Amino acid sequence: MLFAQKYPQRVEKIITLATKFYWDETVAAKEINLLQPQIIQEKIPAFAAVLAGRHAPLDWKEQLQHTQSLLLKLGKKNVLTLNDYNEITAPCLLMLGDRDKMVTLMETVDVFTQLPYGSMAVLPETSHPIEKADLALLKVYIDRFLKG
């Protein structure tokens, strides 16, 4: 979204899924608390193995540290304010699962209403991780948006 705001001529369309638009220090701290490699490895070893495979050949623990650093920065200062979204001229499709516990419907609606060419879809029975999304339904929304 930031790239589209800064370089509108280089972005044709944007699709997001479960994108966290609102950050402050409290939100960042909560999410960082969930990204503790030692705890993940100890309490959810199967998920640690998934992360290792997903990030290979990079070290998944190091990637979590980079993510923590990014979240700290976002918590101190959002890269985009709500008013910045009205400068994005590319058509945007914002998608969110109705059971997402990380991204709120209101923050997505707030951004959606600022976008001059925004569309929004709420995926039923869908929580935050993309692995939980109904890929066939996701494809329908994406195909329809890209053809429009």
Keywords:
single chain, 148 residues, mainly alpha, Rossmann fold, three-stranded parallel β-sheet, 7 helices, globular
Instruction: Give the tally of structural domains.
Output: 2
| Rg on CA atoms, Å | 17 Å
Number of helices in the DSSP assignment: 7
Fraction of residues in β-strands = 5-15%
> How confident overall, as mean pLDDT?
95
Structural class estimated from helices and strands: mainly alpha
Helix content: 40-55%
> How would the global form be characterised?
globular
Identify the strand order in the major beta sheet: 1-2-3
Instruction: State the end-to-end distance.
Output: 20 Å
CATH class of the largest domain: Alpha Beta
CATH architecture of the largest domain: 3-Layer(aba) Sandwich
Number of strands: 3
What is the string of helix and strand elements? HEHHHHEHEH
- For this structure, what is the CATH homologous superfamily of the largest domain? Alpha/Beta hydrolase fold, catalytic domain
User: Can you tell me the CATH topology of the largest domain?
Assistant: Rossmann fold
Main sheet attributes: strand count, strand direction, barrel closure: 3 strands, parallel
User: pLDDT below 50 for ≥5 consecutive residues: which ranges?
Assistant: none
Question: What would you say this structure looks like, in words?
Answer:
With 148 residues, this protein is mainly alpha-helical. It has two domains: 1-21 and 82-148, Rossmann fold (3-Layer(aba) Sandwich), CATH 3.40.50.1820; 23-77, no CATH class. The protein is 49% helix and 11% strand. The chain has seven helices and three strands. The protein has helices at residues 2-6, 25-33, 37-43, 45-55, 60-76, 105-114, 135-147, and strands spanning 14-17, 92-97, 118-123. A three-stranded parallel β-sheet has the order 1-2-3, sandwiched between helices. Helix 6 links the parallel strand 2 and strand 3 (118-123). Helix 3 packs across helix 4. It is globular, with a radius of gyration of 17 Å. The model has no long low-confidence stretch (mean pLDDT 95).
